Structure to design on (64 residues):
């Protein structure tokens, strides 16, 4: 049986912490920023944990 390969695109988007949490960048800060308030864009900086509903799917793509 062939080896299972991890999804390279998901590997670039998600980081696994030491405790096994999945961390990714906050969505919504790439484009259409002109109409968003400064308060909103500041809130979108930094990293967030992946939603509980998506963790199983993301872990499968990462091969974990």
């Amino acid at each position: 049986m062939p080896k299972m390969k991890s999804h390279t695109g998901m590997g670039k988007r998600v980081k696994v912490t030491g405790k096994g949490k999945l961390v990714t960048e906050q969505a919504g800060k790439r484009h259409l920023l002109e109409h968003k308030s400064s308060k909103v864009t500041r809130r979108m900086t930094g990293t967030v944990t992946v939603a509980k509903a998506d963790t199983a799917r993301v872990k499968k793509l990462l091969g974990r």
About this structure: The helical segments are 8-13, 38-43, 52-62. The longest helix spans residues 52-62.
